[in-house]
Design goal:
about 120 residues, mainly alpha
Amino acid sequence: MHECFQNSTLFDLVVEFYEDLFEEDPKAMLDAARGDDGEIVFEETGDDLIDKWERELSQGKTPDLTEGYSKETLAELQKKHDTKVLIADKMQDLLGMEINESYDSLSHREFKGRILGK
């Protein structure tokens, strides 16, 4: 037997098998992840939180993607969000237009004039 084969663990051999399989047939990767109903589900990632979200998604629920954050991180994210909303509101007041209004709907001169107040 080849030396590399004899020095490989069972895990190494299984990984190599799937690498070869998926390289030859990429569709096989999706088929390997399908549940009994044909939906693609990843419920055994090794991360309890990710597995929980995957189960919820497969059940048609919307997972709470913030549940893994600490209270401090959530507060910091909320502060950043509030700042962005405040800036967007100020921009709307300054420009006299909705932020989602297309820049293309204004000429460059008109847009520049709104920013400079001219």
